[in-house]
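User: What would this chain look like folded?
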Amino acid sequence: MARITTHDNRKLYVREIGRGPVVILVHGFGMDSLHWMPLIVPLAHRYRFILPDLRGFGRSSRLDCSDDCVVSSHAQDLHAVIQHYCPDGDVRLGGISLGATTALRYLELFGPDAVRHYLHIDQAPRVSHGSDWRWGLFGEDGPARIRDWQPTLDFLAGADRSSRFEDFPQAEKERFYEHLGSFLAKALSRPWMKWSAQRLSRWPPVAHQLVPVENWYTMYQHLRAYAERDYDFLPLLPSLQVPTTIITGRHSEMYPWQGQARMHELLPDSRLVMFENSGHMPILDQPIRFIRELDRAFGPRA
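Assistant: Here's the prediction, encoded as structure tokens.
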């Protein structure tokens, strides 16, 4: 375990386990590096896993994003991690959800030369919606759901950054927890998981474990980015000369599988792996199969 110095001289927390070729895995929103551990321990004798905690999460939760665009901030941090652990390239890179968007932004900003194989897990290549794109965040329900966030975003935009979340008006905190529960429920596929997420997120001690709010401003940066920025990597894909494995859940409510099928069509060298019994979190819904596909993606032929 280490803290890597970033381009803005902050310390990003990184876990390391295993030996062999370097594999960097980037977690999603509301996750941290620990979520990878049950999946990588069976492969730790074959790969050296590098697992950063993105700013705002895990042991990097107190770090603000360095750039107004949170994904660009994470991509610059990912570049720092790659330079630290594998300065000569030959990295196997994977990301889920926000981590996958971070990886695509990294490839857009810094190019693909350092990456031997890319593993993309349940994330649309375009997050926003348009008349010609119905597979962004939350699918067809996305625009309406994101509009529901606006009162919370407006409140947080006007709040003093030095304020403690605990001191916000009770109505604002309850609305935040409601949004959090709805977001997490969409990410999960099993009915009991959805039920638990919606109810436990309303209990502050649990909600704060799911998404640390001591640095609420970073959470605000992420929500605002989802609501306002047009993260569209479709133009990048035809020129992206990196062997890519795309894993998507057939029942994903966060990002419909059709958008990732389109990604597969646009990439010059890709393989689409459909997890028929999964939603947005194949790593949770079908972990044994995911471990096998992780090994297949990053094995000797990768």
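Residues 127 and 226 are 8 Å apart (CA to CA). If you want, I can go into more detail on any region.
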